[in-house]
């Protein structure tokens, strides 16, 4: 099972303290040292709306480029792709977010879902022509803070309308309302219209994130997002607390016979460190306090 480290992007974007480019680069370097090899490190978002990501270009230009590490940047529109293309050191992949519900999509991106998908199709074709890997993330796939329940039929409809210009499909529980049964149902629904490898993005808002992760592994998902320390959330979704923690998820998967390549002790140390940089008295992750087992 592949763990994708999203702490440098989703982890930081909801925290009050804005870190320097140097600290973010150090965060990435430490994450790599703990065994992570695929990281989402920046978002090409409007600096006035997401000030934590204002230095996206500087971060991508400064992170280390070796050891088979792949970097992902979040884009929301064609302008985001233009910013990625202008870099000397580009990301290896882009992650384009489309929200499953019209109400959340209008609040997050200013357009309804199907209009956002038209933007995705145009950007995805350009991105693949430029050699980027392309992930489509369907946000709020498990539930919406404004519209309530999201059905598997709706998620299937969104994925079917996305087209085939994608290398990976990510289903995101943006506000942490999902349960394992939904994971299984959504996997079956999207498999009817897409053969893209599946990735999942879980938040632990209601303490179901790790159960959902195991359900995803059982349902054939190949990658799971997590953030060191369990930091983060969505600034546009009320009460969306942190992602499942990289160190806790790696412990769970490693002990369950799904090796991740992540050293949980080293990852826990990075989780504690990033919490200190953010001025957090304690991070949500448990491994930094409990330790690995056996010791």
From TrEMBL:
<dbReference type="InterPro" id="IPR000891">
    <property type="entry name" value="PYR_CT"/>
</dbReference>
<dbReference type="Pfam" id="PF00682">
    <property type="entry name" value="HMGL-like"/>
</dbReference>
<dbReference type="GO" id="GO:0046872">
    <property type="term" value="F:metal ion binding"/>
</dbReference>
<dbReference type="InterPro" id="IPR013785">
    <property type="entry name" value="Aldolase_TIM"/>
</dbReference>
<feature type="domain" description="Pyruvate carboxyltransferase">
    <location>
        <begin position="1"/>
        <end position="268"/>
    </location>
</feature>
<dbReference type="GO" id="GO:0046951">
    <property type="term" value="P:ketone body biosynthetic process"/>
</dbReference>
<dbReference type="GO" id="GO:0006552">
    <property type="term" value="P:L-leucine catabolic process"/>
</dbReference>
<dbReference type="InterPro" id="IPR043594">
    <property type="entry name" value="HMGL"/>
</dbReference>
<protein>
    <submittedName>
        <fullName>Hydroxymethylglutaryl-CoA lyase</fullName>
    </submittedName>
</protein>
<dbReference type="GO" id="GO:0004419">
    <property type="term" value="F:hydroxymethylglutaryl-CoA lyase activity"/>
</dbReference>
<keyword id="KW-0456">Lyase</keyword>
<comment type="similarity">
    <text>Belongs to the HMG-CoA lyase family.</text>
</comment>
<keyword id="KW-0479">Metal-binding</keyword>
């Amino acid at each position: 099972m592949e763990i994708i480290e999203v702490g440098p992007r989703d982890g930081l974007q909801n925290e009050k303290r804005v870190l320097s480019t140097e600290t973010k680069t150090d965060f990435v370097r430490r994450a790599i040292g703990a065994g992570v090899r695929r990281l989402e490190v920046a978002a090409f978002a409007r600096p006035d709306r997401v000030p934590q990501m204002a230095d996206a270009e500087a971060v991508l230009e400064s992170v280390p480029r070796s050891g088979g590490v792949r970097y992902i940047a979040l884009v929301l529109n064609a302008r985001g792709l233009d910013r990625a293309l202008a870099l000397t050191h580009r990301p290896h992949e882009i992650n384009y977010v489309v929200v499953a519900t019209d109400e959340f999509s209008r609040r997050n991106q200013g357009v309804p879902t199907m209009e956002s998908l038209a933007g995705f199709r145009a950007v995805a074709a350009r991105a693949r022509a430029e050699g980027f890997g392309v992930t489509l993330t369907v946000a709020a796939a498990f539930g919406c803070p404004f519209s309530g329940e999201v059905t598997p039929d709706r998620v299937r409809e969104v994925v079917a309308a996305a087209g085939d210009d994608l290398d990976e499909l990510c289903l995101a529980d943006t506000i942490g309302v999902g349960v394992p049964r939904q994971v299984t149902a959504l996997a079956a629904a999207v498999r009817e219209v897409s053969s893209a490898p599946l990735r999942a993005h879980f938040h632990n808002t209601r303490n179901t994130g790790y159960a959902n992760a195991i359900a995803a592994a059982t349902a054939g998902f190949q990658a799971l997002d997590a953030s060191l320390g369990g930091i983060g959330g969505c600034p546009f979704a009320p009460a969306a607390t942190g992602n499942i923690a990289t160190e806790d998820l790696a412990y769970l998967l490693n002990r369950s016979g799904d090796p991740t390549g992540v050293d949980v002790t080293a990852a826990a140390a990075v989780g504690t460190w990033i919490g200190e940089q953010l001025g957090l008295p304690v991070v949500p992750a448990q491994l930094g306090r409990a330790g690995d087992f056996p010791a």
